[in-house]
Amino acid sequence: MDLRVLRYFLTVAKEQSFTKAAKQLHITQPTLSRQLAALEAELGVTLFDRGGHGITLTNEGILLKRRALEMVDLEDKIASEFKGSDGIVEGTITVGCGEFMAVEIFARICKIYKEKYPMVRFAVHTGTADTVFEMMNRGLVDIGLFLEPVNTEGLDYIRIQGSDHWIVGIKPDDPLAEKEYITKEDLIDLPLILPERLTVQSELANWFGKDFNRLNIAFTSNLGTNAGVMALYGLGYPVSVEGAGRYWRSDLLVQKKLYPEIKTSTVIAWRRNIPYSTAVSKLIEEINGFKIHM
Questions:
Q1: Domains in the chain, start-ordered, CATH in brackets?
Q2: Model pTM greater than 0.85?
Q3: Percentage of residues in the chain having pLDDT higher than 90
Q4: What is the pairing mode between strands 91-97 and 143-147?
Q5: φ/ψ (deg, to 5) at 177
């Protein structure tokens, strides 16, 4: 399967028009149509629904789009990894992370790194630990930031101890906003928005103890931003690590720490015993150097 044709396919899927895609790709529309018709014949499926006012993807087309994006990303990554062999450190480093305080620590590392190697570009993917871990295993992410608990088998990493506190997001006019901290008794009867990841929920289960099964869990969310939106509409109280809500506007939602306090650690990790590009290897050196000075 020709990656060039997959890029043609992705352009048509984006533009929803053969004419617009052909113009963007600097080829003729008949040539583009023939290439994609041949792709459909090769796969034995119909990729586009050509009826109506525009071109849409069939179910098979949606599946191919997901796979094609992975293949094109991997091709770009391979090309990037071989940059820097002439002594100039350049290329793209892909980072996967959630929303937590340790991202600020990683940003400090990146700032020092970029001063040394300004030609390197970073691509940041935000997602759950499970998503980031899967992308690392497929070679699509170089460096991952994980909120513990996380399985570190097959990884090298540094641990940032106690980097996040658990908090509750509260609207400023809520009576709970006047409290210095929030106890489990404050939360038992309230609609709560909890992290989606079950291993992270286990931290809360330990904190609530036998009362965990009494909780009114109205929503689960894999990212704190969306949990904050639900809270703004009075749909629940997001319970999360501090970093997830650090940049909420304080006039919309305030953060209150849980008491007794819960702290959690974060790891910055990369796969063990695999060859890396010069750019990634230099970043790993910077991360390990940061560990020495922690």
A1: 3-80 (1.10.10.10), 91-161+265-292 (3.40.190.10), 165-264 (3.40.190.10)
A2: no
A3: 49
A4: parallel
A5: -65, -20
